[in-house]
Design goal:
The complex is a heterodimer of chains A (505) and B (424). Chain A is built from 13 helices and 26 strands. With 505 residues, chain A is an alpha+beta fold. The chains are: A alpha+beta (505), B alpha+beta (424). Chain B: Its cofactor is a divalent metal cation.
């Protein structure tokens, strides 16, 4: 793996020069009191926009067309039950595709063996924090990228543990397609697939967040002697569930793999693959990845970037990472940060560890921002053009689909509302109507309770935290699909998913 | 609260004198005192005298004033919702763990004295250790008297401190019988793991968070207090373990023996599903806490509310909510447990209050149990979101059938009345 810092340094714009030693005291006082006009003081840092908006769109279209002939870019979220081997698969795949160098691999192997966790050696390339390594599980989404012959793929390696579903949601909301990893070993598949297992919940979550294509990788087949029966048994169990969750059968594919040994990832050959080759002649994982279709991107809509991470970038500025849901953003553009009254200027844009002059819908980008105080940014903030801000919502109506739940939803029920990387306490303030699941027609207005597996229109109110209530940026589904999807959880269970109908203010 | 005296006759007229001692007593008084009541309490009033020569002489006079209440204001010493590290530093100077709640009662003076004219407005600032005499305008009802009895039970100080935290966020709460006070909120940006930012920023951010958390803990949790029964550290994931380990390590590094002992004896680690304050309800449901605190009112509230939600899941016909529906159920003598928020009794409209008092009395007469939820607790807040009133029924009743019955009954009565009129 190339160290991102190195690449960043190579391409980073000139950093701020050190302040001269003979600073005027009055100047210092002024800056101490924040009296200096920010625009003026930072003007040299903020680059100018190089395109007019129309020109930019033209440019983007041209390059997207070019991309269609070459490598199309898409993002893939890796989901599945805890310990299914998601991180290991990704680590191995990165190595096979040459994205991880031999030295890193050897270092991971050595260190993980030293820690007595040699089976995690592949996963360590994605599980970077010491706590993750110590516990041997992924806790937060790791972002990596690689390219196959036809696709440029951004991978979001989601945590499989039940505790970290909020992080998984944050990852899945940044993806186009999903790779579901399933543990084939005896008993493990079953525990992931039963009620409360993450195989089930992740699929439902991913679908509710707009992911339509899924590759199901049946992993650890080496532990069941590459049994064809086991593979088919698992496929047969998953197929109806996938259809029921709303995945079109033409957009789902299944594949047997052995991640640890690297079988059927890039190629299906060698000593380890012999048993599999006896009954399997299908495509490899990379072949399937090549066939993933990127969804259409809405580049003409106003730009929307929900912030999923904030960190100190190179030099003085702050960097945020997030997915451009719609529209285009270029270097030098001023963006509004919502909620709040502040704006920031984009200093540089980094996609796949390379500096680019602009970024269009669909990409996961890192934006370096200037003329902004880090206090104004929180994980979950949305960046958008100042002329076209996202509406802020305290109360809104939504159509929701209720999953399996033990306690029905009643008016006033306390829930947690998930929208991209943000989760806020909220309450279902009004039950407007129950709807027919197929036609969407009103079955009963003002119902008293909402039971499991029903569909309904409800009003949701963000609950105050302490003395103040902060509205969150939300858009009706009709205006912007990606900004209008919400998930509702309660006490660690996902109880409903829905779309925003109307923002009431 | 100290009980001073009580003169209430069987019809409910009369007065009660109480001496508040802490924040919770203020909350009790806030719940007792209603618009229209007469309150007598010590006050300091600036009195102006104009002498014959026209010079103005202003003096502060301590006197007892009796006012007819037109407004009651209560403010707990709740923390601001978000606190940056700078705020945290500012708070250090002014904060005391037993910060006081304020209760202000305003209204016209009804008993004249030599300094204040009749009808002059005054705002009484109720202070601890000063007697307050309350005379109810509508007379003392059973709920109000029960509240007095509850308030004067001595030595109930079952206090629990709870620290609800997630990665980068924390809320410090103090729980007493009737109140949950969020004394401090902390929110620090912790860069998330991501291959681009690397793991070091994440770990640095976390360490900074633990450090700030530790400082805030020292300031906001009265850990050396003997009255503090337990310190709950609740979080999703493993944050609570990391926080606890950090605190233990830091306490021993600083050689703070008192803190070390408190951490060892009092800390209970509880798993919750989200780092928001409303997860306190989950804390109170957890077996670790229930076994320790089942005597306390807030644990009781949590259990009853949980029972209600569970009943709603298993047998919808035995869990009713909303004032109209609950009244219907009460008419049929079906209520086994009545869940009612004290917020409803604070209704400024005496008719509304009377209605709810009547309901409580009716349920008690029929042998039902009544749990009055404190709206200062998280469970009470949640009940308030469900209209503030709910009931667990002893036998299943269908809402729609009952509503239809009721309509028929009303129709029958109307017809009977008309018939009477025709006959007469």
């Amino acid at each position: 793996m190339g160290s991102p810092a190195k690449v960043g340094k190579k391409a980073a714009p000139p950093t701020k020069t050190a302040p001269p030693a003979y600073l005027d005291q009055s100047q210092l006082d002024l800056s101490g009191l924040n009296l200096v006009n920010k625009e003026v003081s930072k003007a040299e840092e903020a680059p100018k926009m190089s395109f007019a908006h129309d020109k930019l769109l033209e440019e983007v279209r041209k390059s997207l067309d070019a991309q269609r002939k070459g490598k199309q870019a898409l993002s893939l979220v890796v989901i599945g039950h805890v310990d299914a081997g998601k991180s290991t698969l990704m680590g191995r795949l990165l190595y096979e595709l040459g994205r991880m160098d031999e030295r890193t691999r050897a270092a991971n192997e050595r260190n993980s063996t030293k820690a007595g966790k040699s089976s995690f050696s592949w996963a360590w390339s994605l599980d970077g924090t010491s706590e993750e390594r110590e516990r041997g599980i992924t806790m937060d989404v790791a972002l990596e990228s690689f390219s196959t012959t036809k696709r440029q793929i951004t991978v979001l390696d989601a945590p499989g543990h039940k505790e970290f579903i909020p992080n998984m949601i944050s990852g899945a909301s940044r993806a186009d397609c999903a790779l579901l990893v399933v543990d084939a070993s005896t008993g493990e598949f079953e525990s992931g697939f039963e009620r409360g297992g993450q195989t089930r919940e992740h699929l439902v979550l991913a679908r509710s967040l707009g992911v339509a294509q899924v590759i199901v990788a049946i992993n650890k087949l080496d532990q069941v002697q590459w049994g064809k029966n086991r593979y088919e048994e698992i496929c047969a169990l998953l197929r109806p569930f996938l259809t029921q969750s709303g995945f079109h059968s033409a957009k789902t594919s299944f594949i047997p793999i052995g991640a640890m040994l690297g079988v059927n990832l890039v190629a299906c050959e060698g000593e380890d693959a012999k048993q599999l080759l006896e009954w399997y002649q299908g495509p490899t994982l990379v072949d399937l990845l090549d066939k993933l279709e990127p969804p259409s991107r809405d580049i003409t809509a106003p730009a929307r970037i929900p912030v999923s991470n904030i960190f100190k970038g190179q030099g003085s500025g702050i960097s945020v990472s997030g997915r451009v849901l719609s529209g285009v953003v270029q270097v030098g553009e001023r963006l509004r940060i919502l909620p709040g009254d502040e704006t920031a200027v984009v200093k540089s844009i980094e996609v796949e560890e390379e500096n680019v002059p602009w970024v269009a819908a669909g990409s996961n980008a890192i934006l370096a921002l200037v003329s902004v105080d880090s206090v104004q940014l929180t994980i979950g903030s949305v960046l958008c053009p100042p002329a076209n801000p996202v509406p802020l919502a305290l109360t809104f109506t939504a159509r929701i689909l209720i999953f399996d739940l033990q306690v029905p939803i009643i008016a006033g029920a306390m829930v947690e509302l998930f929208h991209h990387s943000r989760d806020v306490p909220a309450s279902v303030s009004k039950l407007i109507a129950t709807l027919d699941r197929a036609s969407g027609k009103v079955v009963k207005s003002n119902p008293r309770v909402l039971g499991k597996a029903s569909s309904a229109e409800v009003q949701i109110t963000i609950r105050s935290t302490g003395s103040s209530t902060r509205p969150i940026p939300l858009e009706p589904y009709a205006a912007n699909k990606a900004m209008g999807r919400i998930l509702i959880r309660r006490e660690g269970e996902t109880i409903a998913a829905g779309i925003v109908m109307e923002v009431l203010g | 609260m100290k009980f001073v005296n009580r003169f209430v006759d069987k019809h409910g007229t009369g007065h009660v004198t109480l001496r508040p001692e802490d924040d919770e007593d203020m909350w009790h008084l806030y719940n007792l005192i209603q618009e229209g009541d007469s309150i007598r309490a010590p006050a300091i009033r600036r009195v102006q005298k104009i002498s014959s020569t026209g010079s103005v002489d202003s003096q502060r006079v301590r006197l007892n004033l009796t006012i007819k209440v037109t407004r009651v204001d209560f403010s707990s010493s709740a923390a601001p919702s978000t606190a940056t590290p700078n705020d945290a530093a500012d708070a250090s100077s002014s904060n005391q763990p037993d910060a006081t709640a304020a209760l202000h009662i305003s209204g016209p003076v009804t008993v004249e004295n030599q300094h204040v004219r009749l009808g002059a407005f005054h705002t009484l600032d109720i202070e601890v250790q000063r007697d307050v005499r309350i005379e109810k305008f509508e007379g003392w009802d059973s709920v109000a008297l029960a509240r007095v009895d509850e308030a004067i039970v001595p030595g109930k100080g079952a206090e629990v401190a709870a620290l609800v935290c997630g990665e980068g966020t924390a809320a410090f709460c103090l729980l007493s019988q009737h109140m949950t006070l969020v004394t401090h909120r902390l929110s620090l940006p912790v860069p998330r793991k991501g291959s681009a930012s690397g793991a070091t920023q994440h770990e640095k951010g976390l360490n900074r968070f633990y450090g700030t958390l530790f400082e805030s803990f020292l300031r906001h949790v009265p850990y050396s207090n003997v009255g503090l029964k337990a310190i709950v550290i609740a979080s999703p994931g493993w944050v609570r373990d990391s926080v606890y380990d950090y605190m233990v390590a830091e306490a021993s590094r600083r050689g703070d023996k008192v803190l070390q002992k408190a951490l060892k004896d009092k800390v209970v680690k509880v798993h919750i599903s989200s780092p928001h304050v409303h997860s306190l309800v989950e804390v109170l449901k957890s077996p670790e806490i229930v076994s320790q605190l089942k005597e306390t009112k807030f644990a009781r509230e949590g259990i009853v509310l949980d029972k209600f939600f569970k009943m709603l899941g298993t047998d919808e016909m035995r869990a009713w909510y909303g004032p109209d529906h609950v009244v219907l159920a009460a008419d049929r003598g079906a209520i086994g447990t009545l869940l009612i928020s004290d917020d409803l009794f604070r209704a400024s409209n005496p008719v509304t209050r009377k209605k709810y008092v009547g309901l409580v009395e009716a349920v008690q007469q029929k042998g039902g149990e009544v749990v009055i939820f404190s709206s200062m607790h998280e469970s009470g807040q949640q009940l308030l979101l469900l209209t503030g009133i709910a009931a667990l029924l002893t036998f299943p009743l269908d809402v729609e059938v009952v509503e239809a019955e009721d309509k028929e009954e009303a129709e029958r009565l109307r017809l009977a009345k008309e018939g009477e009129l025709d006959g007469g």
